[in-house]
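User: My instructor asked us to take a sequence, write out its structure as tokens, and then describe one feature of it. I'm not sure where to start. Here is the sequence I was given:
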Amino acid sequence: MSDKTRNYEQELASLMNNLAESVFEMSDDEVRTEMKKNGDSTDAVRGILRQAVKDCQQRNLIEAQQRYEERIAALSSKKFSLPESIQEMRDMLNSILTSNPAVGSALLTAQHRDFSDLPDEEVPGYLKQLFELGVIDDTAAMGDDE
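Assistant: Let's start with the prediction itself. The structure tokens for your sequence are:
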């Protein structure tokens, strides 16, 4: 018996590479014959490969979606010191954006440049984003434990 410990992962990787290489060297007809002999259909294999490619392509999209949802959840769970009425919130938002027009052009889409058209339910969200971005002084934000 050898004194070396076996590296099973390396052995498996080597075996899989050799199998892949042997299939790669086969002609298309040989592959079809082998698949038919084993009862596999080319449509099933094609479907598996297409799904694998699709999954790989969408992995970054799925990860980005998860990060986005985590950030939205974190933002929703934070507590901010906001005025109580929608009109006071609108006034606060107008004041901030008037004093810093670059923020307004980056934050709001063209359809909501006129703040009177901005739906009431979106106003607190914009203010929270400004807190989070540091445009509004953080000392006005309340901690998570309050």
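For the description part of your assignment, you could build on this observation: The helical segments are 8-24, 28-37, 42-77, 86-99, 101-107, 123-133. Try explaining in your own words what that tells you about the chain.
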